[in-house]
Fold this protein.
Amino acid sequence: MGSEAEMTYDNTVTLDPRIKARLKYDGQGLVCAVVQQYDTHEVLMVGYMDDEALRRTLTTGRVTFWSRSRQEYWRKGDTSGHVQYVKSVRLDCDGDALLIEVDQVGAACHTGKRSCFDEGGPLPAVVGERPDGQQEVA
């Protein structure tokens, strides 16, 4: 199998089998997709994709999700105008989550907030610290 840099996508009717083979699905045949603003790295939202939603995302330049509540595909921004333009798509080491970097136009959340994590607020948690006080060097 070639590297991801060698993979090209076209408007085929099925997800590339090289990609499909790397995915691990949940019980409903879905993969979690974390959506992040490409330049600020702000986490905007989490959605779910099946093969078709991922294929559409990879081949159109716009993010498409599978709506678990409505049981249908939805392309982010078609009704709201709050479009997500794909900048990159990555698969995590376990194959069970995607990181979709986007250029977000307007709000990502259905509440009208930029991020779906703006409304919920922080949860009480004990903050951990490294015993040696050292920071990780990148």
